[in-house]
UniProtKB/TrEMBL annotation:
Native organism: Gossypium raimondii (Peruvian cotton)
Every Pyruvate kinase C-terminal domain range: 395-515
Keyword entries, A-Z: ATP-binding, Glycolysis, Kinase, Magnesium, Metal-binding, Nucleotide-binding, Pyruvate, Transferase
Catalytic function, reaction form: pyruvate + ATP = phosphoenolpyruvate + ADP + H(+)
EC assignment: 2.7.1.40
Entry protein name: Pyruvate kinase
Domain Pyruvate kinase barrel: 30-360
Length: 527
């Protein structure tokens, strides 16, 4: 695996680029979040998605009702059992999303230079002249000359399915707009996005709260994707809300940065959130095109240094209808990996796209190729410098484990963890080899019954680059003795061998707690 590690800064033989890549058990270190929907909800398709490399399933509540998503989730559980591949669950809130309500679901044709009126009166029928919306404060938020985009499942840049409007006047609660391009809107819901317009809608709506406290609690969701996060306070309020809902106090909150307001408060949001999703669909509307790449690079760097997972969206839109991505998209996926992305999130491509499994497989292959040329040495030095001295105990152990693994050309790092924190810290230093995080379950009680923790922690590492979790047998005592550690280590090594990442004579770096001390050791495997 490591002999194939190239550096773009060094001369590469052009012919070597065409050499086929070796197949490996883990399709890529970069994780793939797939949105499940109409085209990807059967057991068969979900199994295909899991085998192709999806490790987090996203449920987008802008679409359909909880019963529909529950059915999909039951199919996901069946597919997980069938494929024996772990998968985490992410609930995506609707948040401060403005929508056009098209009850009749008839296609609406809009002609360039014509006039269309946006009205908060939802009882009206949607037509080419009138579009009812779910927000009554738009007339107060916009002014003449402002830009509004409308499209199915967010503005894609495809000028036939999305429309660009310019506000010409405000009449009472209605907003009169000039249509800037001809387009046909099809479906029952279209997202409406005002460019650089402040919308006074709550980040967690009452509908979101209801879905989280019923569907979310029932299914013990691993991640909450908080749409339209604009302030750190949004994350704090969501966390306080989750803390009162049974097991959901453990759910991680990923802040979705979708507009200028979120971008302006990025540093404070990053401090509060467990991870960040860069929603490039909406951001691409709020930012001038020439600034999009700069925001991506700066945001990913900040997430990397904070050791928090960063997820990039909207990478292969054209694969919604096509089997191959465009050249620009293929390059974009690779650049997201080289910029430091932990995971790639697929939305429409898997939700309603024609090729969900092929899309995941293609994105995984591009990620794997990009990982081979990731400059780990430079990244490692940069991270150590950023962390500064004195390092915390755990940080110094994590960075030492990665440095040792690279120096001895280890094939894998095995990390024993109960909270998942140690494994995430190791992953922060971006080792070139996979990190097997062995989650040791802990016994806990709520005064009524005893239960084991660990499943949440294991699934939550499925969004972190290079981390591959396995749950240890709860019968192993948490108070580690050398005997119990050896038996868990043997299980981990066997798992690695079965997966094909460890062979005889390989070196493995192990990071574990013995008593109160943390130990990094290098072991060489015999035959």
């Amino acid at each position: 695996m490591h002999s194939t590690h190239l550096l773009l800064e060094e001369p590469i033989r052009m012919a070597s680029i065409l050499e086929p890549s070796k197949a490996s058990f883990f399709p890529a270190m970069t994780k793939i979040v797939g949105t499940l929907g109409p085209k990807s909800r059967s057991i068969e398709v979900i199994s295909g998605c899991l085998k192709a490399g999806m490790s987090v399933a996203r449920f987008d509540f802008s679409w359909h009702d909880p019963a529909y998503h529950q059915e999909t989730l039951e199919n996901l559980k069946a597919a997980v059992k069938l494929t024996k591949k772990l998968c985490a669950v992410m609930l995506d809130t609707v948040g401060a999303e403005m929508q056009v309500v098209n009850k009749s679901e008839k296609a609406i044709s809009l002609e360039a230079d014509a006039i269309v009126v946006l009205t908060p009166d939802e009882g009206q029928e949607a037509s080419s002249e009138l579009l009812p919306i779910n927000f009554d404060g738009l007339s107060k938020a916009v002014k003449k000359g402002d830009t509004i985009f409308i499209g199915q499942y967010l503005f894609t840049g495809s000028e036939t399915t999305s429309v660009w409007l310019e506000v010409s006047e405000v009449k009472g609660d209605d907003v009169v707009c000039v249509i800037k391009n001809s387009a046909t809107l099809a479906g029952s819901l279209f997202t409406l996005h005002g460019s650089q317009i402040r919308i006074g809608l709550p980040t967690l709506t009452d509908k979101d709260k209801e879905v989280i406290s019923t569907w979310g609690v029932q299914n013990k969701i691993d991640f909450l994707s908080l749409s339209y996060t604009r302030h750190a306070e949004d994350v704090r309020q969501a966390r306080e809300f989750l803390s009162k809902l049974g097991d959901l106090y453990q759910t991680q909150i990923f802040a979705k940065i979708e507009n200028i307001e979120g971008l302006n408060h990025f540093d404070e949001i990053l401090q509060e959130a467990d991870g960040i999703i860069l929603s490039r669909g909406n951001l691409g509307i709020d930012l001038p095109p020439e600034k999009v790449f700069l925001f991506q690079k700066a945001a990913l760097y900040k997430c990397n240094m904070a050791g928090k997972p960063a997820v990039v969206t909207r990478v292969v839109d054209s694969m919604t209808d096509n089997l191959r991505p465009t050249r620009a998209e293929a390059t974009d996926v690779a650049n997201a990996v080289l910029d430091g992305s932990d995971a790639i999130l697929l939305g429409a491509e898997t939700l309603r796209g024609l090729y969900p499994v092929e899309t995941i497989s293609t994105v995984g292959k591009i990620c794997a190729e990009a990982e081979k040329v990731f400059n780990q040495d430079m990244y490692f030095k940069k991270t150590v410098k950023y962390v500064g001295e004195p390092m915390t105990h755990l940080e110094s152990i994590a960075s030492s484990a990665v440095r040792a693994a690279i120096k001895v050309k280890a094939s894998v790092i095995i990390c024993f963890t109960s909270s998942g924190r140690a494994a995430r810290l190791i992953a922060k230093y971006r080792p070139t080899m996979p990190v097997l995080s062995v989650v040791i379950p802990r016994l806990k009680t709520n005064q009524l019954k005893w239960s084991f923790s660990g499943a949440f922690e294991a699934r939550q590492s499925l969004i972190v680059r290079g981390l591959f979790p396995m749950l240890a047998d709860p019968r192993h005592p948490v108070k580690s003795t050398s005997a119990s550690n050896e038996s868990v280590l043997k299980v981990a090594l066997d798992h690695g061998k079965a997966a094909g990442v460890i062979k005889s004579h390989d070196r493995v770096v192990v990071c574990q707690k013995v008593g109160d001390a943390s130990v990094v050791k290098i072991i060489e495997l015999e035959d």
